[in-house]
Amino acid sequence: MSAIATIAQVIPRRRVHSSPWGDAWRRYRRNRMALVSAFIAGLTVFLAIFAPLIAPYSFSYADLAATLQGPSAHHLLGTDEIGRDVLSRLIYGARTSMTVGFLVPLIGLLIGMPVGAVAGWFGRRSDFIALRLIEASTAIPPILVGLLLIAIYGSGLFHVTLFLGIVSWVPFARLTRAQFIALREREFVTAARAIGTPPWRIMLLHILPNAAGPIILLFALSIPAAISAEASYSFLGLGVQDPVPSWGKMITEGGQYIQIDPLFSLLPMLCLALTTLSFNFVGDGLRDALDPNALE
After folding, report:
1. Are the C-beta atoms of residues 131 and 119 closer than 8 Å to each other?
2. Residue 231 in contact with residue 268, Cβ under 8 Å?
3. Does 98 map to a domain?
4. Which end of the chain is more exposed for a tag (fewer CB within 10 A), N or C?
5. CA–CA separation, 42 vs 4, rounded Å?
6. Per-residue pLDDT for 80 more than 90?
7. What is the per-residue pLDDT across 26-47, written as a single tens digit (0 to 9) for each?
8. CATH number, domain at 198?
9. How many domains is the chain partitioned into structurally?
10. How far does CA 90 lie from the centroid of its chain?
11. Is the alpha carbon torsion for 210, 211, 214, 220 positive or negative?
């Protein structure tokens, strides 16, 4: 027994390397609903990227001799009112939704994060001006601002994405400001100041990485909101215009023929609901995974 104990002491134990992101991944993968939702969200992104290779037809191809037909060998999910393949338009609709879903939060992040960072780091006059801008933007409902911009400059995928992104900067500015205020007095920031590190370097290399978790979470939770907003505008006829497909617009078009072909309207509703729910569950999983107080 003594020999075995001696050998056990000689053999080095395998060290388990731990990191904040590694711990977050271990917490995330324990959430099965979040994992399934991540698979669905990833599948949607995959369909959006490779839509030209996966879709059986182009989104603008129309067979006028096969309008409002049910599922068949040539059209697995049927055709719409001008003979376009419903399955192909659903796949290309995923590209529209993912384009809006990722670009809108990105635009809001690029606008809001610098505003919040400057306000949280420098404070005083910069903080006062940023807070007044945030309050003014919060006083006006974003949907009204979006409708006004669309009425002035027109609709379309580019305009809708840009306008939704412009009005989505406030949550990112608020969160970034709060994170910078909470972190600017920490010991590692004080040490960086003591050795003469420039403020911009402290902000980029010290504070921002420590504030990345909540910002990533807000970005993930903003994706389904952007998808729903685009679908709402398209449903009202103010969003994406023909021939570019959109799930919201397909719901509107299918509503006129729901008694003839219910799938025409129900399928885009199902795609929209499944996608927004999956991204919401992904965001919930990230919230639990990035919680520093979560127990291992």
Report:
1. yes
2. no
3. yes
4. N
5. 50
6. no
7. 888 888 899 999 999 999 999 9
8. 1.10.3720.10
9. 1
10. 19
11. negative
